[in-house]
Amino acid sequence: MKLNRLGASAGFVYLLVGVGWVWLAQPPAPAWLLVAWFAAAAAVEAFIPGEANQVTLARAHLAAPAWAYSVSPGHLGLLALVLAVAGLSDLVDGTVARRFARPSTFGGGLDPVVDGILLGTVVVGLSFSGSFPFWLALVIVARYLLPAAGGLVLISMHRRPELRHTVTGQISTSLIIVLVGGICLFRFLGQDATNVVIGAEVVIPIVTIATFVHLALVARRPVVVAEPG
Q: Which residues contact 108 (CB under 8 A, 6 or more apart)?
C-alpha cells in the first residue's frame, strides 16, 4: 500500500486530538504509552484510503483512552462515554461509505479488526480491575480473534475470504458495546449491575456463537470470479 493523503491527514488530526487529550485530561495511564499508541495508529492510517475507513479508524485511536479508563475503576463513567462515541462511529462509517459510494471489501475486513482491538482492550482492562468477568472477556476476545485467524487460514489455503459485514457480526458488536457500556455506567453511578452482568453473560456468548456459525456458512460459499470480457 502507498501513502494516502486522506489517511495521512486524518491520522494527523487524530494524533493532535489524542495528544491534546493526554495533556488536558491527565488520564490514569503513562502519557508516553498513550502518545505512542496514537502515533502508531496514525502511522498505519496514513496508508489506508477511504473516507469511511477514517471514521472506522477513530475506534483504533479510542482504544487508548478506553484502556486508560478501563483499568481505573474510578473512571468507568468516562469509559462509558468512550464506548458511546465508538458505537456512534460504528453506525456512521457505513453511512459514509454509502454516501461516497465507496463500500469496499477492505473496509468490511477493517471494521471487525478495529472493533476487536477496541473492545478487547476494554474488557481485558475491566477484568483486571475486577469490574468485568474474566471468562466473558475471553469470549469477547475470541469473538474477534478467531474469525481473523480463520481468515488467515483461508488465505494460507489460497482461498480468498469474503470480507464483508454480516448481520450477526454487526448485531453482536452493537450488543457488546451496549452491555459493556451499561455495566460501566451502572458501576459508575453506584447502582447494582448484577442484572446487567447476568444479561451480558447470557447474550454475549449466544451472539458470539451465532456470529461464528454465520461466518462459517459464508466461508463455505464458493467465490464467484467474473469471467474476463
A: 163, 164, 165
